[in-house]
Design goal:
The complex is a heterodimer.
Chain A lengths: L3 E4 L2 E4 L5 E11 L4 E6 L6 E5 L3 E2 L7 E14 L9 E7 L5 E3 L3 E5 L1
Chain B lengths: L2 E5 L3 E2 L5 E8 L8 E8 L6 E7 L4 E3 L7 E6 L4 E6 L8 E9 L6 E4 L3 E5 L2
Parallel strand pairs in B: 2-11
Antiparallel strand pairs in B: 1-3, 3-8, 4-5, 4-9, 5-6, 7-8, 9-10, 9-11
Chain lengths: 109, 121
């Protein structure tokens, strides 16, 4: 069973700073099957990145995804106030069909 | 515009069976590649995928919960139903349904608002 481990668990940054979030898989993941979501308090998750590096519709270009194999990264180039949230990576395909990481919180410093 | 909405009881007793309905619009579950899945999130915790049903009635379940879950679809009503047996306090969570289309990508592109289910006597 594949496990996704996100780090750091919490990132404390100021608006305008760069955020780098990591997602490590216990087995190799085809980058086609790696996605990132953003979740704000009281809301459902929303898709940010799919295929490891493709932005979903309407997602600003300050969000970018990269990586391959077992190491994937979500980068927010310049944090805006609305970006402070929890971020989840997700893989598709290996058992279980969908797996989410444990989440990483980006909080205001 | 794709929308999904969960419905069902907000409170269930331990050992009872939970039945949740996802009612959707903006797509058809008879279209090739389309699926509807269920994900839950205990308060303050991470997302956990539960089950997914595809357009061709292929059903997939979380291995850890497979014995307790059943997912079905009613294409004519645009609904997907999830049942979970033998509910316990650890099953208290917000339950989401979500749309997936493997012809576009391998992710949940649209989510319902979620529904908090509390398990308590």
């Amino acid at each position: 069973e594949i496990v996704l481990t996100q780090s750091p668990g919490t990132l404390s940054l100021s608006p305008g700073e760069r955020a780098t979030l990591s997602c490590r898989a216990s087995q190799s993941v085809d980058s086609t099957y790696l996605a990132w979501y953003q979740q704000k308090p009281g809301q459902a998750p929303s898709l940010l990145i799919y295929g490891a590096s493709s932005r979903a519709t309407g997602i600003p270009d300050r969000f970018s995804g990269s990586g391959s194999g077992t190491e994937f990264t979500l980068t927010i180039s310049r944090l805006e106030p609305e970006d402070f949230a929890v971020y989840y990576c997700q893989q598709y395909g290996r058992s279980p069909l969908f797996t989410f990481g444990q989440g990483a919180r980006v909080e205001i410093k | 515009q794709i929308t999904l909405k969960e419905s069902g009881p907000t409170l269930v007793k331990p050992t009872q069976t939970l039945t949740l309905t996802c009612t959707f619009s903006g797509f058809s579950l008879s279209t090739g590649g389309v699926g509807v899945g269920w994900i839950r999130q205990p308060p303050g915790k991470a997302l956990e995928w539960l089950a997914l049903i595809y357009w061709d009635d292929d059903k997939r379940y979380s291995p850890s919960l497979k014995s307790r879950l059943t997912i079905t679809k009613d294409t004519s009503k645009n609904q997907v139903v999830l049942t979970m047996t033998n509910m316990g306090p650890v099953d208290t969570a917000t339950y989401y349904c979500a749309h997936s289309d493997i012809l576009s990508g391998y992710y949940m592109g649209h989510w319902g608002q979620g529904m908090l289910i509390t398990v308590s006597s």
